Amino acid sequence: MFDLTGKIAFISGGTKGIGKGIAKVLKQAGAITIIAGTSQTRGESIAKELEVDFIPLDVTDQPACKSAIDKIIEKYGRLDILCSNAGIFPQHYLKDMTAEDWDLVHSVNLKGTFFLVQAALNVMEKQHSGRIVITSSITGEITGISGYSHYGASKAGQLGFMRSAALEYAGQGITINAVMPGMIMTEGLQSFGDDFLDHVKETTPMRVFGVPEDIGYAACFLASDEAKYITGQTIVVDGGQVLPEVQEA
Ligand code: NAP
């Protein structure tokens, strides 16, 4: 396990699913960990369970993103790691998709990433150090799923954002990378329904779903001192899902 002792780490969407898994792993690696989500009740309860701090935050609110980072600086003096993980994936088939459906997904997944990463970079720039890890997806950049064209566009968009942002800050001791999960069993994924999930499990080469901590371990590596020469890159964590050229029986 990479050592994050004493590092200050902030995880958006850290109150459930993948973000909660990232929070667990970073805390286990020694980081002083702060999680965020929109639900105050759940946030406080998960923070208690994980023995971490909680800041209520809706990432679509730009001043709130800035103020969350300010609160961290006031309390801890610095911010070493940002995991921009908050995201939503409501299903909407293209024929019925409204502008509002499209905007909501982009607002949380893509604009929310921009708001929070920008706010974190403003303090990391003064520190001349920092690690940013974005939770993107295999969906969009590599694969597609019916009913998720808006989601795929937002997740591929995060990677386009990440690459240019990484270049802007490469000379300043700050790295910006992304993890691309496949099917990870979370509260959010359960909404896909049993039939779909059974099919996915059968067709995933490793024949199991990932667990949130699998993404946590990849994020922990990218957040570590040992990953200091890696920026603008991605790690796919998907049990081999994107590999098959043909579907094997
Ligand atoms: P999840 O179980 O639904 O958890 C989502 C988290 O994001 C919750 O903590 C939620 O907290 C928070 N959140 C949602 N909207 C927010 C907002 N506007 N502002 C701040 N926080 C917000 O989802 P998940 O499966 O863990 O997915 C997490 C991330 O991984 C997403 O970016 C998703 O695209 C990505 N991903 C997931 C999978 C998968 O298989 N699960 C695969 C690829 C990529 P509140 O409800 O309290 O707001």
Automatic annotation (TrEMBL):
Cross-referenced InterPro entries: NAD(P)-bd_dom_sf (IPR036291), SDR_fam (IPR002347)
The organism's place on the tree of life at top rank: Bacteria
A Pfam family hit: adh_short_C2
Residue stretches spanning the membrane: none
Keyword annotations of the record: Oxidoreductase
Cited PANTHER family: 3-OXOACYL-[ACYL-CARRIER-PROTEIN] REDUCTASE, SHORT-CHAIN DEHYDROGENASES/REDUCTASES FAMILY MEMBER
Protein family per UniProt: Belongs to the short-chain dehydrogenases/reductases (SDR) family.
Protein name in the entry: 3-ketoacyl-ACP reductase
Biological source species: Xenorhabdus beddingii
